[in-house]
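Sequence design from tokenized structure. All designs in this work follow the same two-part layout: the structure record, then the generated sequence. An example of the structure record is given first.
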């Protein structure tokens, strides 16, 4: 599939504008896993994927810390965008649009900087599917199996259920954003990887309803509602079924950090298989 596709047309936007900390005053993105910073692992995979330019979105509080870590790791061929206010992941992705426009990029893959088990092969699959189907939105999800021990690390993960015949013709309904619960059996958990058409995203972003996280900060703009918006507006949507739930894991707690470090030491080769569900 990739042979006839120009994957360099798809940029990678790495969201590194969060405020999560494992140690007070230090962004979790520069915490190390096997002697390599979490964010640097993600950026390394983004570059190895062989897609277009890599744009890192940082914030004012930890922006310098993030840039220093990347420069120290010799990631010097990057572009940066800035999220001045704490308004959520979708807003951070939106802040990358001017940079993408200057680079002449019309399609981009969004990944999170705190998900160190993402791999270059999966990023390529996402970009290839997005180009192959010429979709407005391509996203991946994992059908939840509560017997999998990794589920207990998915508290607060956004998930959705499908109505009707469970096909893409039926509207996915986002039923969880920051409820403090684990996703239920049979739900589909967002894997936090999204390929977007820049023009479509520019319009769809303005339809996202910001939601509070309950942490005392202003409501934030999140990426999962884009699926509802896309289906409701008859946009072209592609859903890739995730086969390996390890790719969904992010570092939010010390327990997450310990688990992922263990996985890196004991299971270095992640499952590569995936199935595509096209329009």
């Amino acid at each position: 599939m990739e042979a006839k596709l120009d994957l360099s047309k798809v940029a990678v936007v790495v969201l590194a504008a969060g405020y999560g900390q494992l140690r007070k005053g230090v962004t979790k993105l520069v915490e190390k896993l096997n002697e390599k910073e979490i964010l640097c692992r993600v950026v390394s995979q983004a570059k190895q994927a062989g897609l277009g330019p890599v744009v890192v979105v940082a914030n004012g509080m930890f922006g310098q810390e993030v840039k220093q870590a990347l420069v120290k790791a010799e990631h010097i061929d990057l572009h940066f965008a800035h999220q001045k206010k704490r308004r959520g992941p979708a807003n951070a992705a939106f802040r990358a649009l001017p940079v993408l426009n200057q680079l002449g990029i019309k399609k981009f893959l969004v990944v999170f900087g705190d998900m160190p088990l993402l791999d270059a092969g999966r990023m390529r699959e996402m970009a290839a599917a997005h180009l192959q189907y010429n979709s407005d939105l391509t996203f991946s999800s994992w059908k939840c199996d509560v017997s999998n021990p990794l589920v207990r690390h998915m508290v607060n993960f956004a998930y959705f259920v499908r109505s009707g015949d469970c096909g893409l013709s039926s509207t996915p309904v986002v039923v969880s954003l920051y409820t403090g619960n684990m996703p239920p059996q049979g739900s589909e958990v967002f894997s936090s990887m999204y390929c977007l058409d820049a023009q479509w995203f520019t319009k769809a972003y303005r339809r996202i309803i910001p939601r509070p996280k309950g942490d005392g900060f202003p409501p934030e703009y999140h990426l999962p509602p884009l699926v509802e918006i896309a289906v409701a507006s008859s946009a072209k949507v592609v859903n890739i079924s995730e086969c390996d739930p390890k790719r969904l894991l992010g570092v939010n707690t010390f327990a997450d950090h310990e688990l992922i470090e263990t996985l890196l030491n004991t299971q270095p080769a992640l499952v590569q298989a995936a199935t595509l569900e096209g329009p």
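Confidence is low (pLDDT under 50) at residues 270-279. We note this feature because it recurs in several other targets discussed in the main text.
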